[in-house]
Protein backbone atom coordinates (compact mmCIF):
# COMPACT_ATOMS: atom_id res chain seq x y z
CA UNK A 1 0.00 0.00 0.00
CA UNK A 2 1.36 3.37 -1.05
CA UNK A 3 0.68 6.12 1.48
CA UNK A 4 2.07 8.73 -0.92
CA UNK A 5 -1.10 9.24 -2.91
CA UNK A 6 -2.17 12.43 -4.64
CA UNK A 7 -4.71 12.91 -1.82
CA UNK A 8 -1.96 12.60 0.77
CA UNK A 9 0.09 15.39 -0.79
CA UNK A 10 -2.93 17.55 -1.65
CA UNK A 11 -3.92 17.47 2.00
CA UNK A 12 -0.55 19.02 2.86
CA UNK A 13 -1.06 21.69 0.17
CA UNK A 14 -4.50 22.27 1.69
CA UNK A 15 -2.96 22.80 5.12
CA UNK A 16 -0.79 25.51 3.52
CA UNK A 17 -3.96 27.06 2.06
CA UNK A 18 -5.41 27.02 5.57
CA UNK A 19 -2.40 29.00 6.84
CA UNK A 20 -3.05 31.58 4.08
CA UNK A 21 -6.71 31.71 5.16
CA UNK A 22 -5.68 32.49 8.73
CA UNK A 23 -3.51 35.35 7.44
CA UNK A 24 -6.52 36.72 5.51
CA UNK A 25 -4.91 35.80 2.21
CA UNK A 26 -6.84 34.15 -0.62
CA UNK A 27 -6.39 30.55 0.59
CA UNK A 28 -4.17 28.80 -1.95
CA UNK A 29 -1.37 26.43 -0.98
CA UNK A 30 1.25 24.66 -3.08
CA UNK A 31 3.95 22.09 -2.45
CA UNK A 32 6.67 20.56 -4.62
CA UNK A 33 7.47 16.88 -4.23
CA UNK A 34 10.55 15.06 -5.50
CA UNK A 35 10.87 11.29 -4.89
CA UNK A 36 8.04 11.50 -2.33
CA UNK A 37 9.96 14.16 -0.42
CA UNK A 38 8.45 17.62 0.03
CA UNK A 39 11.07 20.15 -1.06
CA UNK A 40 8.90 23.31 -1.04
CA UNK A 41 5.78 24.27 0.91
CA UNK A 42 4.23 27.68 0.23
CA UNK A 43 1.02 29.67 0.50
CA UNK A 44 -0.30 32.81 -1.11
CA UNK A 45 1.18 35.98 0.39
CA UNK A 46 0.08 38.71 -2.04
CA UNK A 47 -1.60 40.88 0.60
CA UNK A 48 1.05 40.66 3.30
CA UNK A 49 3.88 41.26 0.82
CA UNK A 50 1.93 43.79 -1.31
CA UNK A 51 3.17 41.76 -4.24
CA UNK A 52 0.90 40.33 -6.93
CA UNK A 53 3.64 37.85 -7.86
CA UNK A 54 3.60 36.17 -4.42
CA UNK A 55 1.25 33.35 -5.49
CA UNK A 56 1.85 29.99 -3.81
CA UNK A 57 2.98 28.28 -7.01
CA UNK A 58 5.46 30.97 -8.02
CA UNK A 59 7.09 30.86 -4.60
CA UNK A 60 7.09 27.05 -4.75
CA UNK A 61 8.88 27.02 -8.13
CA UNK A 62 11.57 29.42 -6.83
CA UNK A 63 11.90 27.64 -3.54
CA UNK A 64 12.18 24.14 -5.05
CA UNK A 65 14.76 25.36 -7.59
CA UNK A 66 16.70 26.94 -4.74
CA UNK A 67 16.58 23.66 -2.79
CA UNK A 68 17.74 21.64 -5.80
CA UNK A 69 20.25 24.31 -6.85
CA UNK A 70 18.93 23.76 -10.36
CA UNK A 71 16.72 25.76 -12.68
CA UNK A 72 14.49 22.92 -13.84
CA UNK A 73 12.05 20.78 -11.88
CA UNK A 74 11.99 17.93 -14.38
CA UNK A 75 11.61 15.17 -11.77
CA UNK A 76 9.17 17.03 -9.52
CA UNK A 77 5.41 17.21 -9.01
CA UNK A 78 3.71 20.44 -7.93
CA UNK A 79 0.48 20.09 -5.94
CA UNK A 80 -1.69 23.20 -5.69
CA UNK A 81 -5.15 23.62 -4.22
CA UNK A 82 -6.43 25.78 -7.11
CA UNK A 83 -5.92 25.65 -10.88
CA UNK A 84 -2.92 27.92 -11.63
CA UNK A 85 -3.38 31.39 -13.16
CA UNK A 86 -1.61 32.32 -16.40
CA UNK A 87 1.39 33.75 -14.49
CA UNK A 88 1.89 30.54 -12.51
CA UNK A 89 1.22 28.35 -15.55
CA UNK A 90 3.98 30.35 -17.26
CA UNK A 91 6.40 29.77 -14.36
CA UNK A 92 5.53 26.04 -14.42
CA UNK A 93 6.06 26.03 -18.18
CA UNK A 94 9.57 27.43 -17.80
CA UNK A 95 10.35 25.02 -14.93
CA UNK A 96 9.51 22.00 -17.11
CA UNK A 97 7.99 20.42 -13.99
CA UNK A 98 7.19 16.76 -14.56
CA UNK A 99 3.63 16.87 -13.24
CA UNK A 100 1.08 19.38 -11.95
CA UNK A 101 -1.80 18.28 -9.73
CA UNK A 102 -4.50 20.73 -8.73
CA UNK A 103 -7.59 20.65 -6.54
CA UNK A 104 -10.40 23.06 -7.40
CA UNK A 105 -10.74 24.51 -10.88
CA UNK A 106 -10.73 28.31 -11.35
CA UNK A 107 -13.16 29.08 -14.10
CA UNK A 108 -12.60 32.85 -13.91
CA UNK A 109 -8.86 33.27 -13.55
CA UNK A 110 -7.39 29.82 -14.27
CA UNK A 111 -4.95 29.58 -17.18
CA UNK A 112 -7.35 27.34 -19.08
CA UNK A 113 -9.75 30.30 -19.26
CA UNK A 114 -7.25 33.18 -19.40
CA UNK A 115 -4.91 31.55 -21.90
CA UNK A 116 -1.40 30.23 -21.51
CA UNK A 117 -0.05 26.73 -21.35
CA UNK A 118 2.04 24.27 -19.40
CA UNK A 119 5.10 22.59 -20.92
CA UNK A 120 4.17 19.86 -23.43
CA UNK A 121 6.09 17.33 -21.27
CA UNK A 122 4.16 18.21 -18.09
CA UNK A 123 1.46 15.72 -17.06
CA UNK A 124 -1.68 17.11 -15.45
CA UNK A 125 -4.12 15.72 -12.89
CA UNK A 126 -7.05 17.92 -11.86
CA UNK A 127 -9.75 17.64 -9.21
CA UNK A 128 -7.89 16.05 -6.27
CA UNK A 129 -9.79 17.03 -3.06
CA UNK A 130 -11.56 19.55 -5.27
CA UNK A 131 -14.55 19.95 -2.94
CA UNK A 132 -12.45 20.71 0.11
CA UNK A 133 -10.19 23.10 -1.81
CA UNK A 134 -13.20 24.92 -3.26
CA UNK A 135 -15.00 25.01 0.11
CA UNK A 136 -12.03 26.81 1.70
CA UNK A 137 -12.08 29.42 -1.10
CA UNK A 138 -15.86 29.91 -0.74
CA UNK A 139 -15.55 30.27 2.99
CA UNK A 140 -12.87 32.98 2.50
CA UNK A 141 -14.98 35.04 0.09
CA UNK A 142 -18.11 34.65 2.24
CA UNK A 143 -16.18 35.98 5.25
CA UNK A 144 -14.95 38.94 3.18
CA UNK A 145 -18.45 40.03 2.16
CA UNK B 1 10.13 69.50 -25.89
CA UNK B 2 9.62 66.42 -23.76
CA UNK B 3 12.82 64.50 -23.13
CA UNK B 4 10.85 61.69 -21.45
CA UNK B 5 9.93 59.86 -24.62
CA UNK B 6 9.35 56.12 -24.97
CA UNK B 7 12.76 55.93 -26.70
CA UNK B 8 14.40 57.67 -23.73
CA UNK B 9 13.08 55.11 -21.25
CA UNK B 10 13.58 52.14 -23.58
CA UNK B 11 17.24 53.08 -23.87
CA UNK B 12 17.52 52.72 -20.09
CA UNK B 13 15.78 49.31 -20.25
CA UNK B 14 18.25 48.42 -23.01
CA UNK B 15 21.19 49.34 -20.79
CA UNK B 16 19.77 46.87 -18.22
CA UNK B 17 19.60 44.24 -20.97
CA UNK B 18 23.25 45.00 -21.72
CA UNK B 19 24.13 44.28 -18.07
CA UNK B 20 22.33 40.91 -18.40
CA UNK B 21 24.32 40.25 -21.59
CA UNK B 22 27.58 40.86 -19.75
CA UNK B 23 26.49 38.34 -17.07
CA UNK B 24 25.81 35.78 -19.83
CA UNK B 25 22.08 35.98 -19.18
CA UNK B 26 19.54 36.20 -22.02
CA UNK B 27 19.69 40.00 -22.47
CA UNK B 28 16.33 41.37 -21.38
CA UNK B 29 15.94 44.53 -19.31
CA UNK B 30 12.86 46.15 -17.77
CA UNK B 31 12.15 49.36 -15.91
CA UNK B 32 9.04 50.76 -14.22
CA UNK B 33 8.30 54.47 -14.53
CA UNK B 34 5.88 56.51 -12.43
CA UNK B 35 5.48 60.25 -13.16
CA UNK B 36 8.65 60.15 -15.27
CA UNK B 37 10.57 58.73 -12.33
CA UNK B 38 12.22 55.32 -12.61
CA UNK B 39 11.12 53.28 -9.59
CA UNK B 40 12.47 49.86 -10.65
CA UNK B 41 15.32 48.80 -12.92
CA UNK B 42 15.93 45.08 -13.47
CA UNK B 43 17.47 42.56 -15.81
CA UNK B 44 17.06 38.87 -16.40
CA UNK B 45 18.85 36.74 -13.78
CA UNK B 46 17.50 33.24 -14.43
CA UNK B 47 20.94 31.62 -14.86
CA UNK B 48 22.72 33.28 -11.95
CA UNK B 49 19.81 32.64 -9.58
CA UNK B 50 18.94 29.21 -11.03
CA UNK B 51 15.38 30.49 -11.01
CA UNK B 52 13.11 30.45 -14.06
CA UNK B 53 10.93 33.11 -12.42
CA UNK B 54 13.76 35.70 -12.33
CA UNK B 55 12.70 37.40 -15.56
CA UNK B 56 13.31 41.16 -15.73
CA UNK B 57 9.60 42.05 -15.77
CA UNK B 58 8.65 39.85 -12.82
CA UNK B 59 11.42 41.37 -10.72
CA UNK B 60 10.36 44.84 -11.89
CA UNK B 61 6.72 44.29 -10.85
CA UNK B 62 7.80 43.10 -7.37
CA UNK B 63 10.39 45.81 -7.00
CA UNK B 64 8.06 48.66 -8.06
CA UNK B 65 5.30 47.39 -5.75
CA UNK B 66 7.83 47.26 -2.95
CA UNK B 67 8.91 50.83 -3.68
CA UNK B 68 5.31 52.06 -3.76
CA UNK B 69 4.32 49.88 -0.79
CA UNK B 70 1.24 49.02 -2.84
CA UNK B 71 0.11 45.94 -4.70
CA UNK B 72 -1.07 47.67 -7.88
CA UNK B 73 0.90 49.65 -10.45
CA UNK B 74 -2.12 51.50 -11.83
CA UNK B 75 -0.23 54.75 -12.54
CA UNK B 76 2.95 53.13 -13.85
CA UNK B 77 4.46 52.21 -17.21
CA UNK B 78 6.67 49.17 -17.64
CA UNK B 79 9.28 49.30 -20.40
CA UNK B 80 10.83 46.00 -21.44
CA UNK B 81 13.21 45.22 -24.28
CA UNK B 82 11.35 42.05 -25.33
CA UNK B 83 7.67 41.16 -25.59
CA UNK B 84 6.72 39.55 -22.23
CA UNK B 85 6.27 35.78 -21.90
CA UNK B 86 2.98 34.36 -20.55
CA UNK B 87 4.33 34.34 -16.97
CA UNK B 88 5.29 38.01 -17.10
CA UNK B 89 2.09 38.96 -18.96
CA UNK B 90 0.25 37.28 -16.08
CA UNK B 91 2.20 39.26 -13.47
CA UNK B 92 1.47 42.46 -15.42
CA UNK B 93 -2.19 41.48 -15.61
CA UNK B 94 -2.41 41.14 -11.84
CA UNK B 95 -0.52 44.42 -11.31
CA UNK B 96 -3.06 46.34 -13.41
CA UNK B 97 -0.12 48.37 -14.73
CA UNK B 98 -1.32 51.39 -16.70
CA UNK B 99 0.87 50.83 -19.75
CA UNK B 100 3.33 48.29 -21.15
CA UNK B 101 5.91 49.27 -23.77
CA UNK B 102 8.14 46.67 -25.36
CA UNK B 103 10.96 46.68 -27.87
CA UNK B 104 11.46 43.52 -29.93
CA UNK B 105 8.65 41.06 -30.44
CA UNK B 106 9.11 37.41 -29.38
CA UNK B 107 7.36 35.28 -31.92
CA UNK B 108 8.30 32.00 -30.23
CA UNK B 109 7.76 32.62 -26.52
CA UNK B 110 5.87 35.92 -26.34
CA UNK B 111 2.46 35.85 -24.65
CA UNK B 112 0.78 36.76 -27.92
CA UNK B 113 1.93 33.40 -29.30
CA UNK B 114 1.85 31.30 -26.12
CA UNK B 115 -1.48 32.60 -24.87
CA UNK B 116 -2.35 34.78 -21.92
CA UNK B 117 -3.39 38.38 -21.69
CA UNK B 118 -2.70 41.76 -20.13
CA UNK B 119 -5.32 43.58 -18.05
CA UNK B 120 -8.08 45.11 -20.21
CA UNK B 121 -7.18 48.56 -18.78
CA UNK B 122 -3.49 48.25 -19.73
CA UNK B 123 -2.41 50.20 -22.82
CA UNK B 124 0.25 48.66 -25.05
CA UNK B 125 2.93 50.14 -27.30
CA UNK B 126 5.19 47.71 -29.18
CA UNK B 127 8.29 48.12 -31.31
CA UNK B 128 10.20 50.92 -29.50
CA UNK B 129 13.92 50.54 -30.41
CA UNK B 130 12.90 47.11 -31.70
CA UNK B 131 15.96 46.72 -33.97
CA UNK B 132 18.45 47.47 -31.20
CA UNK B 133 16.64 45.22 -28.71
CA UNK B 134 16.51 42.39 -31.26
CA UNK B 135 20.16 42.89 -32.29
CA UNK B 136 21.31 42.42 -28.68
CA UNK B 137 19.32 39.17 -28.44
CA UNK B 138 20.74 37.91 -31.76
CA UNK B 139 24.24 38.78 -30.68
CA UNK B 140 23.73 36.78 -27.46
CA UNK B 141 22.53 33.65 -29.23
CA UNK B 142 25.26 33.90 -31.89
CA UNK B 143 27.90 34.05 -29.14
CA UNK B 144 26.34 30.99 -27.46
CA UNK B 145 26.59 28.83 -30.59
Automatic annotation (TrEMBL), chains A, B:
Keywords of this entry: Hydrolase, Metal-binding, tRNA processing, Zinc
Ranges of residues in domain CMP/dCMP-type deaminase: 4-114
Superkingdom of origin: Bacteria
EC number(s) on file: 3.5.4.33
Residues at the catalytic site: 57
Any matching Pfam family: MafB19-deam
InterPro entries cross-referenced by the UniProt entry: APOBEC/CMP_deaminase_Zn-bd (IPR016192), CMP_dCMP_dom (IPR002125), Cytidine_deaminase-like (IPR016193), MafB19-deam (IPR058535), tRNA_aden_deaminase (IPR028883)
Gene Ontology biological process: tRNA wobble adenosine to inosine editing
Molecular function in Gene Ontology: tRNA-specific adenosine-34 deaminase activity; zinc ion binding
Free-text comment on the cofactor: Binds 1 zinc ion per subunit.
Signal peptide extent: none
Binding site for Zn(2+): 55, 85, 88
Quaternary structure and partners: Homodimer.
Function comment: Catalyzes the deamination of adenosine to inosine at the wobble position 34 of tRNA(Arg2).
The protein's name: tRNA-specific adenosine deaminase
Amino acid sequence: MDIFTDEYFMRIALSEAQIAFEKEEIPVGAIVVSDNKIIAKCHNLTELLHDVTAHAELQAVSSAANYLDAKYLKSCTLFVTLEPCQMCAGALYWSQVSRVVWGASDEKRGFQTMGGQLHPKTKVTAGILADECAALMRSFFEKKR
